[in-house]
Records
---
Amino acid sequence: MAAIRFEGVTKVYGDGTRAVNSLDLAIEEGEFMVFVGPSGCGKTTALRMVAGLEEITDGVILIGDRVVNHVSPKDRDIAMVFQNYALYPHMTVAQNLAFGLKLGKIGKAEIARRVGDAAAVLNLEEQLQRKPKALSGGQRQRVALGRAIVREPAAFLMDEPLSNLDAALRVQTRGEILKLQKRLATTTIYVTHDQVEAMTMGDRIAVMRDGRLQQLGTPEELYTRPANTFVATFIGSPAMNVVPAPVLKLGSESSLVGFRPEHIRVGSSLNGSVGFEAAVEVVEYLGDEQLAHLRLGELSLVAKLPVAEKVEPGTTTAFTVARDSVLFFAADTGVLTDPRS
Amino acid sequence: MAAFRRNRPSNDAGPQGLVLADDWHRPSVRWGLGTAHAVLLVLLVVMGLGPILWLAKSAITPTQDTLATPMSLFPHGIAWGNVSDAWNNIDVQLYLKNTIVVAIGSWLTAIVVATTGAYALSVLRPRFGKVIMAALLTTLFVPPVVLLVPLYIEIVHPPFINQSFTGNYWAIWLPESASAFNLVLMKRFFDNLPREIFEAARIDGCGPFRLFFYIVLPMSRPILGVVSIFAVLASFKDYLWPLLVLGPTDTNLQTLSVRLPEIEQFTPLGYFLAAMFLACIVPIVGFLIFQRGFLRGTGLSGALKG
Amino acid sequence: MTPKLEQTPAAGGVTHRAPPRRTPATWVQGGGISRILFLLPMLVIFAAFSWYPIVRLVLMSLQYTNLVLPAKWVGLSNFSTVFHDPLFPIAVKNTAEFAGLALVFGYPIPLVMAVLISEVRKRRGLYSALAYLPVVIPPVIAVLLWKTFYDGSANGVFNTMLGWVGIAPQPWIGSQSAAIPSLVLESTWANAGSTVIIYLAALTGVNRELYEAASVDGAGLWKKIWHVTLPQLRTILLITMILQIIGTAQVFIEPYLFTGGGPNNATLTVMLLIYNYAFGNSLGGAYGEAAALSLMLVAFLAVFSLIYLRATRSWSRN
């Protein structure tokens, strides 16, 4: 396995669109790194540049200590799992798995061993002689994973591999991918648009938007100290409430304040907390908690409350938030500011 | 309106919905359409099959009978000799062999030129790809018959070589493979192959050659079938160009289509009809075997033009 | 040693190393050579047998070529010779007659057949196969076969059949007036099948719900055909029409093999005239005139197509 490094990497398409803008990023050996962001943010383009499927307009990508800008994909020692699996339709599962190995001139015995091991780990032993069109979506996805595993590469590159699976399968496969990666300890870059996947799977997460890196950090760092309002509202569901500071009487219009739905409580403010009054529009009962949708003037807020708290739709209620839970952002740039500075 | 009985037919069976189940139950429609279909079937058998059956019958009928009473059925017995005479005495076996050789050669060159060109344009994507495509599309609008004269001059007096190419099968194979139609058809097919599979193959270690042989070609069986059928059929039906290329000095190289008109005057009718029938067998049998391919391919080409 | 770089975004002052430059070596690595290798067969073939002949055609029409001496420029005299050839207007008239008859007679038939076949419930494949069978027959065979059918004596095949219903024997291709219609008949027989298949494919693409909606609106069979089928098929109908016109304008095999252009030039078409100019016995070797007439044919068809496309643009756009 190897570390992967982006240095000032930029991708500009022929028509002038900047898909990736000066990306600086270092991924450690054996790390499970997640690239997450909305569509068009450049995460897939960045991944493809590591794979060698997109040309690098400017900057340098290193795999290990080697600059790979002009190295062809097959010589980069990487394996990729595609969103639509990209299995070879005219080959059986076994042939699909063995294909890359045959081209790499690996001996027959070794190929058989690796294919057998991968099939065993991924529960594909019964499917080895079937063709992709006879497999279910989940099975195809496992073949795609298997194809990457048998290569025993320096890094795995995964492009939204779960997005074509139904919800239940997705959750189950998520765990299996994680277990696999931990066991093999291969450096992995995993691209997704789903922040839940990012939070649950990544050792570290790179949040991207419009081609730029917004923040790089552990899930906890991103959740508790988001670098800007975009990260703050992107990570976590329901999203963080971000309102102008004067609403909570915490500052002037030049600041925004953010607080997570689970930090709101019903009641009036005490020492160390700030309060506001809002109209309760709808309350969603979830069994273990309730989501209250509030309206404050023109602002919509969401509160995640314990079931014990009493909230009635159609009433105006006082709410309170612990002062320590509130984050400050500059209103013009959205960047996190430290209120003590 | 209740109960439209929805027949959900597969592609090749079942009505198109013009006549609904409800309509079908009305006696006037059913009898009218049924009669029309019956008439159509009879017409098709008579018109489509009739001439060929007549040819088959006359191929084994003595010449006199065919001349005197062409529509009668073996009044004086069957002349199997016609066929063997045609085969041997007028050398139909030679010309049939030639026709098949020419067809195979046409097929091979057509496939090679179309697949490599379409692969380059669709998958490898060179810098001047658009220019080349434009040049290709303009040739689609030039009726090929019109190029016969300059092509002939070019074959007889090739630019850098001091030797005529008449009497050489390559003079048939190579120009015929310059089919913009085949190339565009194949390129469109390659365009529709999922790019991700090519990317996976590149990562697995395929260079351009392996990608072509191990991935693209195996995935292209349908279109290869269609282009093959077109190429072989076009070769069998080709007349004027082989006539020009394989002139009177190369009679032993000529194909059936070229040879038969030339010997019409000297050949007794019975043998001649037998020879014609032998010439038809290969295309007809081929058609019966590969029906689906023919019909699908022609429909495809209609879709291409539409 | 690679220097350690900051891991936070937009870390100012980070020096990036310069990206490696593109060189001929990177082009080769990127598969440049194989790109050319794969293109080569196509480029060579088309250059030699498609693009070059087109250029050559234009040049030849302005030259005198006789295969022995180098070609001589003669300006537009080839065109003039063709124009003033008394056979030229005859050929044009005959070709127009052939194309026109083929259009009137041979254009509606495949459509009617296709509509009927598309509604067949069982064994539709049989109908399609029977309709397509004549297309598979090599044109030479078809023509020679029909030549025997058209035998003008009382014992000719068709004449015998006419005799069954008491009609006198016809000269068919031996008569100046009946020659072209006879050719059109054979040509329609040989070619209708492929058009039927094309129409069948297009008909399967018509959305069934349109028919159902029409039925709900109270449309009977004929109204459905007129208001649903034909409009949906509009584009393909226009295309097959122009293709048929272009194809029949170049008819060669039928006149050449049936009648050699006779009787008395009644079946002399433009393509046959071109052939005679270049390879015929009486004229022969007049390559310049042949090229000129070829060019005139192409130009005419091109202009015609343009006018046709313009005129039908309002029809084919909904």
---
Amino acid sequence: MTKIIVNGVEVDADPKKPIIAACHGNGVEVPHYCYHPGLEPVGSCRICQVEVQQGTMPARVMVACRTYPAEGMVIQTESQKAHDTRRECLEFLLKNHPLDCPICDKAGECDLQDYTYAEGQAQGRSNEPRRELEKRKSLGDVIVLDEERCILCSRCVRFFEEVPKQAQLTVSNLGSRSVISTFGDKPLKGNYQGNIADLCPVGALTLKNFRFQARVWNLLKMASTCAECSRGCSTTVEVLRNGEVKRFRPRENQAVNRWWMCDTGRFAYAHPNQKNRLSGALIVGQGGAQTASTQAGVDALAAALRSSGKVAIVASPWCTIEEAAELQSLAGALGAALCFFSPEPNNLKDDLLHTGDPCPNRRGLSEAGLAAVKQSELAGACAGAQLVLLVGERIGELVGNALSATPGLAVLDTVAPAQSNCRVAIGVPNCTERTGTWVNIDGHRGRIAAAKTAPHGVAPLTRTLQDLHSGIKAALQRS
Amino acid sequence: MTKPGSYETWLLNRTGLANSHTLDVYRQNGGYKAIEKVLKTPMSPADVIGEMKASELRGRGGAGFPTGMKWSFMPDPAKDPRPRYLAVNADESEPGTCKDRVLMEKDPHGLIEGCLIAAYAMRMQAVYIYVRGEYRLSYQRCQAAIDEARKAGLIGKNILGSDFSCEIHMHKGAGAYICGEETGLMESLEGKRGHPRPKPPFPASFGLWGQPTTVNNVETIFNVPFIINKGGAWHAALGTKGSKGNFLCGISGHVNKPGVYELPFGITAGQIIENFAGGIWKGRKCKAWFPGGSSCALLTGNDLDVVLDHDSLKARGSSLGTAAMIIIDDTTSIARVMEIIARFYDHESCGQCSQCREGTQWLSQIFHRIATGHGQPDDVATIESLARGMAPGKTICALSDAAAIPTLSAIRLFKGELEECVRQHRDPISYKRIEYAGAH
Amino acid sequence: MALPEKLVREFEELAKKYPDRKSALIPALHRCQEELGGWISPETMEDLAAFIGIEPVEVYGVASFYPMFHLKPVGRHMVSVCHNISCELRGASEIMEHVCRVTGAKPYGTSPDGKFTVWPVECQGACANAPMIDLDGVYHEDLTPEKVEKILGGVK
């Protein structure tokens, strides 16, 4: 580590990283566009200018992303000269940038807005017409490009070259005619396109399915973990006031996903935003299925479990390790067989993040002692059971009619089950509505968090399972 | 010392001979004696670099960096055994500059021999001559010279029976001025967009394909055989304190005899115009002039007494650049001149750096409006402010500075004239033009 | 691959000059432009990408950077006219006007009969013999309007 002084404070700087990393790592914000810690620094946007003084040389304004620490280097990020240089640079960037803020998705999380507000000038001096380019260029199913907003930081170009390692974008033409382009009108390919919308510092690259959906300051953001495979990328779940998940964004986690996530996870809104939720319980009796409160459902299910003889429990692959622990207690109390549903691998595995295993907690559930059971093995694993308890989000859909021969099912899921042999169903929260822990393919623990409330009447699954357990214990004591 | 024939010359001596570009004529006129001297004496690579340092030769591509010192930046091959290269910068695109073309078309073997000696001194096995794409005759002549030299055992393995092996390859550019910047040249040679690289790292440690490289101008390399033959001390005895030897001066614009002339350092601009270029044309006076291409500060008719060398021009507020004098007479509109200069930099900016990409376009737009009678009252003040925001040293390369410097000089020297254009809503000195929107 | 065999063989030889095959790209683009109609088509870019072993989008980024490469069809003859400072000081504007009149093309445009494309260019290094045009790769310098008529009139 090299010792340098940043704004009067001595800090340790990794000599292999530019000084901007040392600044950011010590809570000192230095504006930047082309720089990104996950990409090779190019030093082209020129906004990250700070004053650097070394040895006997006079202090100079230099770009922080291409300056490397040297022992005793003194850095001033807030000197007048640094501010002036950055202010000049911002004026140049705003010269052609369209005044789209009122209609731009990026407003509120835009680096051009933020840095201009912090140290730009209130009035531009340009009397020239702004350049006219394509404002809604489709780059395929995921991304739309507004060529006029682009500040040519080239992060998007470099992302495809350096991360999925296949070039898809280029800067075409040169100078003031530079434009980000694909080849011909070829759409972007691959499962990592959404990352360039995160990377884009302005609203030039935006997600088609987020376009005009929400103002970012109306989104509640919670740190969570992606549910779509066993990589368990760290994410931020962003929920609009009415309770819909509007965005998943990757959260930096150097051990798991660095700064990225795949589009499969990014656009996995369908399940969290499901409409026809089971809120409360369904109890099947003589007159068909009756709606009831969760508590009534728990009571009915506890009664069914007591009177059922042999019971088997199949956990959803989305169950957390906390839920697995509750299931183990429950299984112990019932003398029931316990396993988790093991989905087949899909064809989404790649060299980057997606593992091809749709089960986010396979390792967690396995390490907790639950056996993995495939759909074809399910009937065999539950052979002889009078009642099979299916627990956890999406379990109904996964099981399908694999257990149609079982005398009775009880389903704890987000929606009412389709299975006709279901006796009791209780609604549960999905992975954006509850907290818990998953363990990823490499053993890293990822927290899921409640970013929105479950439908009224739905309790956390751990509580439902505890109530079930209490209900059974109480009955056993009574009997 | 200031009239033709009154001083020693060497650079253009062979170019007037018939078939000067052929091996036979080259050999008949002292050619390939220097590489022979280097290999047969033998001189060590350190000896050669020593002569170059003693010669005090400064680069002729525009920056004027001491050549011997640049060569000594190459790492010790014992410590850094990676392949290493000489890239000869024959991109010659600075407005007003047409001197390297003369050497390549008319005396290509001189360049080849210089390359061989340079490669020997810096222990390189390969040389790439990057010629601008439009210089087709230069490319053909140099390629033919390489072919002749190879047949004569002067290029390839074990040159003249020594341990020294060297390849020389021609390479073409494709019309981008920015590829004359040494790191832009290397990017282009690697088959990419000509985007200059931030420095550090410098080419001597990270050059072509990431390996140690030296980039030198054609005229610089052309001097090398003469320095080896006659000694560095000979060269250092000629010229002025900070500018040794002779230089090729291209003089163009409003003179009677535009041309490329070999001149001694120490001569003044006025002497060049009167004694070589036939004086200002049409009996007019010099209003303004560029001493070294369009990337330096303008000077006026009152500055013709300045000695055309590095230190004198710097003291006068400009620079030697490529020694391409562009003379502007007193009937010419400065607004029109700057409109063209600003358009040039807008056209040539690679677009990486915010200040340059936007600033060169902005300057071009403002100068265009001023020159076409659509200036606004704050235009001249804005231009000055923008140019100060574009330089010095705020960008990856010096193109931003190259646009800002002549702009600031035009304002310093001709502010009144520019403001008059704005005030009168026209360019008082009308100039024939065709209006057309740029397509590239 | 649609590149003519002879060009592919030429490019293989060309690539041997460099430690990295990509360096052959710009010389190869020149040759393609010379041999395949004076411009670089998207198909040519795809073929060159396959030859080098890079993505077509990278070839496009390179080809679109350099002013000498034309990415749209051009006339049978290319007339490049320098409009930079040394040429302008010696009457390049008049020359441009004459060139346009004689050819029938506008600057950056092609004549209706497809014979000529007129392309304004920056400094071509003919400053001491200004003004100039580059006709199909050959410089014509020290021009006057009369010389322009003669040179262009003589083009078949």
